[in-house]
Amino acid sequence: MPNVLVVDDSKVMRGMIIACLRAEPGLTFSHAASGLEAIEKLSLESFHLVVLDLNMPDIGGIEVVEFIRSQDKLRSLPVIIVTTRGDEASKAQALAAGANRFMTKPFTPDAILGEVRALLHGSGAAEKNASEAHP
Questions:
Q1: Cβ neighbour number for residue 134 with a 10 Å cutoff
Q2: Residue 121, domain extent
Q3: Which stretch of 20-29, 58-67, 83-92, 114-123 has the lowest confidence by average pLDDT?
Q4: Selection from 68, 90, 91, 93 nearest residue 78 by Cα
């Protein structure tokens, strides 16, 4: 069963993301309230996907993505950034760090579910976006 790590310092947002993703059968979820907690969980558990906020009080999302990409066992782990930052510089920075997708809040349940499905089950669009993120 695919295990998804949802990382956001807002308990409400973590709950909303998980509620949206429950529409996909067979997913299991874990969550973290900070970048540091996410890194700890990534070091101890196996995940198939990370949904990650950029703005967190301790270690930000960019640093978490950089950590993921620096670890041999995590390097290919898909990461979706879900953030309030909608500017092009934030998007470019997240994709350059290694994020596979970049979404802004608010999002629709269908939009986030579509991204998760594409990354977990593979599609040409997922591969295209990943190759754009990793030139």
A1: 11
A2: 3-133
A3: 114-123
A4: 68
* Pairing status of strand 3-7 against strand 28-32: parallel
- Contact of 14 with 45, CB cutoff 8 Å: no
Number of domains in the chain: 1
| Better-predicted residue by pLDDT, 50 or 131 | 50
CATH code of the domain in which 43 resides: 3.40.50.2300
The CA-atom distances, in angstroms, between 115 and each of 36, 57, 73, 108 are 25, 26, 22, 11
pLDDT value of position 123: 56
Pairing type for strands 49-52 and 79-83 reads: parallel
Q: Which residues contact 37 (CB under 8 A, 6 or more apart)?
A: 7
Per-residue pLDDT at 132 exceeds 50: no
> pTM (2 decimals)?
0.89
Distance CA 133, CA 24 (A): 25
